[in-house]
Amino acid sequence: MLICPICSAALSAADNGVACLAGHRFDRARQGYLNLLPVQHKNSRDPGDNQAMVEARRDFLNAGHYAPVARRLAELAAERAPGRWLDIGCGEGYYTAQIAEALPQADGYALDISREAVKRACRRNPALSWLVASMARVPLADASCQFLASVFSPLDWQEAKRLLSTGGGLMRVGPTSGHLMELREQLYDEVRDYADDKHLALVPAGMLHAHSETLSFALSLASPVDRANLLAMTPHGWRASAEKRRCVIEQAEPFEVTVSMRYDYFVLQD
Questions:
Q1: Are 269 and 204 in contact (CB under 8 A)?
Q2: Is residue 38 in some structural domain?
Q3: Cβ pair 25, 18 in contact under 8 A
Q4: How confident is the model at residue 48 (pLDDT cuts 50, 70, 90)?
């Protein structure tokens, strides 16, 4: 199932880690994850989200603000009942853990390029296989997965296609153009629109767009801490001016904002 990120040979258990026949060895961290991101595949010393971003997202999600998003993702995964699944770009594991609860008999894997994220994700479900790895060089064998999840994450479509077995599918979850609109209107003088379906142009041949739906709901953030965490876990935390961020965080009234997500499912055909 796991393959060496250096030579692509199969990885087998070896002491407290894994190794391939070529002698490449990868130890398991004390938290339980495998680091399968060789230094030559990194674009910086510590790629991916940093500790502050990871902890802000963890605290915001643990407060239940996006619970409907995770619940619907878990329902859609359970309807497809895969034997082996992978969460690509799992972050700190909030969505991953809920997929795992919906698929108790399935073999679950999750990866992210951020070591800080995966360190925290391990605590959510130690039974899953947690990996620090590149989303562009996933260390899993060809056609080894029946279900892939990609939630708020960059996606290498060709890599996703390589990982899927025939009949398996990818569930992509991402924001619509109306997502957090009220927040964006307060942070920026001009709100840029974007197409909800621009990702469809990237889908490789042989992958059928089998399902699409949108989930929207109103969210009321009364706590300044929750508003600060929302900003810190999004690009708005560094794109918007400090003054406008402070106005959002410190306002006296609860901040009302729209959450709007699009779910798209793509099936690999013969």
A1: no
A2: no
A3: yes
A4: low
